[in-house]
Amino acid sequence: MPSHLHTTLSTLLPELDIISDPDTLQSYTSDWTRESPVVPEMVLRPETTEQLSTILTTCNSLKQAVVTQGGLTGLSGGATPQMGEVAISLSKMRGIIELDRKGQTVTVKAGTPLQEIQDAADAAGFRLALDLGARGNCSIGGNLSTNAGGNQVIKYGMAREQVLGLEAVKADGTVISAMNQMLKNNAGYDLKHLFIGSEGSLGIITQCVLRLHPKTRGRQTALCGCENFDSVVALLQQSQAGFGGVSSFEVMWSGFYRYAIDHVEYTRDPLQSAHAYYVLIELEDDGSEHAREHCLEKLASFMEQGLLADVVLAQSERESQDFWNIRDSIAEILGLLAPLANFDIGVPIKHMEEFVKRVERELHARYNNLTLIVFGHLGDGNLHLCASTGKYDDKHKIYSDVYQISADYGATVTAEHGIGMNKKAYLSLTRSEAEINTMRELKRCFDPNNILNRGRIFDV
Ligand SMILES: Cc1cc2nc3c(=O)[nH]c(=O)nc-3n(C[C@H](O)[C@H](O)[C@H](O)COP(=O)(O)OP(=O)(O)OC[C@H]3O[C@@H](n4cnc5c(N)ncnc54)[C@H](O)[C@@H]3O)c2cc1C
Predict the structure, then answer these.
(1) Which of 214, 240, 273 represents a domain boundary (last residue)?
(2) Which ligand 1 atom sits closest to the C-alpha of 93?
């Protein structure tokens, strides 16, 4: 079938970029997890929505399964090909279509790297309120299809909240153009939400309209040391009440912090002593001296109240970047700990401390040579745990152990990265049977031949 597909597409779209040489195909065998890589039958790289529509119409009539690939930074195996699949890469559908200063929107092609959009917004005096460590490689289409979270969710919400409109192509080639540019539009169903967070299972996103926010004039970055979890929670609440503009509140358990400082080359510890928890707080303000003084006063009062054991406020952009380097060193840590079980669990804050303690206790009792590091976006109830014994076999057992524990705390098995292939077995720990059956009905309606990202999230 793939050779027939190749011939058909070459005839219908002579200009289409079709990759079939074995060496080049190696770059398309897996997402960032590098888990269970599979060489796709071929890679198709359309440049326009019309080309993509023709590709899908053809694949649908041949019942050829396809996998959509953006920047391949996904962490759930969703973009990793399965045997016999053809990969559709959005890498040639890239670029800013329009930046509307009056409407404060930017319209982009789905294959555009997130950072490229952030930079374009910045150059025009705005900001895109979506940011994550993979910003240089991930694509906006991938961000929307996974409803990515990241570092500013506490203030601006997830990827979904940044989208005003989008265009997507359904499995049968139908183009759904819902390129709304307005904040309010209640004319019937808001179909964009079906494509956001559905991990490429209902259609391929080709373009989108994103909201922009005014660029804030100043920011303060504080790195804090706390001695117990109650102080961390109190610090979150007091910061939100006292500062107003908290855009990030990232918590690192001491194991994560020490691992980052000791193992990642470009990190350094700016604090005087060791603590149980480290918190990176970012505040947005008007950039005035008064705002900085207010920030210093508040931090001093938090210290007097005993919420903070230590704090350092960045004096420069460079110092702020140094603090963020500790948190962002997760990109290197993932490589250092491989093979590892990498979690993006969502846990209600009231259960977080106990949940982590139980995971630490039970995993250390069960596994030798375990490295377990924990960090998270506390305000979003989102915890990342990375656990590794260095043994591939242990990794799968650890996944099962931790997800079973998480079920006792009303957790979600994925707060950010999505289900993909890797968490499929655990979907029912988070979603009811009725929910999963409704998802199946939607999938059958949008993609009756089950050609789009087949077997991701659930089996139909
Ligand atoms: C260092 C690092 C840090 C990260 N930090 C975060 C974080 O803070 N928050 C977070 O949420 N994630 C994070 N991630 C995970 C990842 O970056 C996100 O999931 C990202 O949104 C994936 O984008 P991508 O373009 O790389 O998608 P891919 O990996 O290519 O694909 C991911 C999924 O989206 C589908 N897809 C891709 N493009 C489209 C499209 N145009 N239309 C339809 N479906 C599509 C794929 O089929 C697949 O199912 C991080 C990853 C790394 C490596």
Answers:
(1) 214
(2) 41
